[in-house]
Amino acid sequence: MLIRTILLLLCFGSLARLTAQQSSVAHTFEVASIKLSTADPHSSSGIKTGHGRIDARNVTLKRCIIGAYGVGPHQIIGGPDWLDSDHYDILAKADHPTDDDAELTLMLRSLLTERFKLALHHETRMLPAFVLEVAKNGPKLEKATGGESSTNTNGSNSGISIAARNTSMDLLAKVLAREMDYPVVDQTGLPGIFNFTLHWTPERLKPVDSASTDDVSIFTAVQEQLGLHLRSQKAPVDVLIIDHVERAPTEN
Asked: Where in the chain are the domains?
């Protein structure tokens, strides 16, 4: 009986190690190239995902952390000044053509840890924030039937657009936080996943003499297009504390 118990424990231990190894492999890019960007720091930049690839052009490491951990810029605390000044070009490819943003996000986290030796920890702090809640007349959201989650944000001279598929309200809050002055906390109480589009014009893009009805603020857009509401208040916010990071990534 004792021998059988020992053998079972050994088997379970081997299985756990194998599962952990498989999980680690599943969340790692097969190949990745990281280089300092030669583009003008003030020129266009962004991160595109899809088909098992991440293509980041002229991005700061802080922008990569924002994308990898789904937080806004004000939720990252500490770290050296160059997090906001050095720009990189990153091209990474998985061993399978996934369009799942959640999987690609985990891969990006692993890449930052491996190549920049990024180490951080989470804390919850009371901070000024925007609370996302259901508007008075109820939500205007299409219930999704399931599938891979995706949130594509595009910016142009006409404004910013978000096209979301199979996206939860918690994820929407994280996406909005990247575009706002404060973190966004989901308090809609809406379970499940949704499909929706959102378009607004930031103040910096509005012409001084424009009277276009299409130039709506993010607050108006969220209410009129999604049936939700953004309200400012202090709230418990998850923040990332940078413990360690290295400026020069390890070799490709």
From this structure: 28-244
